[in-house]
Automatic annotation (TrEMBL):
Residues 147-226 form the Quinate/shikimate 5-dehydrogenase/glutamyl-tRNA reductase domain. NADP(+) binds at residues 159-163, 252, 275. Keywords: Amino-acid biosynthesis, Aromatic amino acid biosynthesis, NADP, Oxidoreductase. One of its GO terms (molecular function) is NADP binding. Belongs to the shikimate dehydrogenase family. Pathway: Metabolic intermediate biosynthesis; chorismate biosynthesis; chorismate from D-erythrose 4-phosphate and phosphoenolpyruvate: step 4/7. Homodimer. Residues 40-122 form the Shikimate dehydrogenase substrate binding N-terminal domain. This is Shikimate dehydrogenase (NADP(+)). One of its GO terms (cellular component) is cytosol. Residues 275-303 form the SDH C-terminal domain.
Amino acid sequence: MGDGEPAERRRCRLCAEGRPCVYPEIDYLGGQTVAKLFGIIGDPVENSLSPAIHRLFFDQCGIDAEYRRFPAKKEELRERLRELRERNISGFNVTHPHKQAVIEFLDEIDLPAKEAGAVNTVVCKGERWIGTNTDGTGFIASLKEHVADIGEISTLIIGAGGAARAIYRALLEEGAKRIDVANRHPDRAAWMVERLNGGRAESRVMTLEDCERRLSGYGLVVQTTPVGMAPLDGRTPVSLRHLSDKALVIDIIYHPKETVFLREARRKGAKTANGLPMLLHQAAFAFQKWFGHLPDIAPVREKIDQILEERSC
């Protein structure tokens, strides 16, 4: 396709064939073919920070690539993935609600993804798509900003979804000796513990009501449910009445920057952290899967913090 071709004719092959396509803009930027295409697929993805993060990584490393949002409802996943295959996408991230559902469309998944039962990153090697999960390693990297000896801290995980499984597995790999799990449906938490633990740590499964009464016994509390972000903002999954003021409380939600859960923990005197560090670290590890080296997250964090501040205004 020549440089002088009119912009209105710069269309992707799917559009040219008259087939449905909701992303006609992603193949050409400024009249030039994108060398490498990456993105995030999920629903919703309109407010995802991943495009901003990865574009900053690309700029930092001098990589000619583009990162886009690919909105896809549950019933649209198959068709959207087929479109991405036809576009020869180089790699993509997966977010809610597709972290489990995407697995059947991949050629291979690695051990972290298999044990977590969820994929958040796909590496595309030609026609072969390989799923992995960087949520766990991203969480551990963010946790190490606060905790020196992970093995000696008693942990409570609230939730039993894909992120909780990745975090539980990563804590086991770090030698954590006690990891309890509370969930609205304890059978899901019990399945997670049975699937992953292998006798490596002491783990108690409990209801959300039970964990409220036991909170004083934990040095680390990790909130992994969607409660606290839209449309569930303004809510908290459990009461923190019995929380220890010596605890570190992490909510993996990053928008809003301080959920009701974190605000209550801070008022109890606990140290708190939101999900932005985990997001940045897991994105860096995904980048490493695609390009073979880790980017520096420090300058990126400052700019993403600014974006979040602007969104909060």
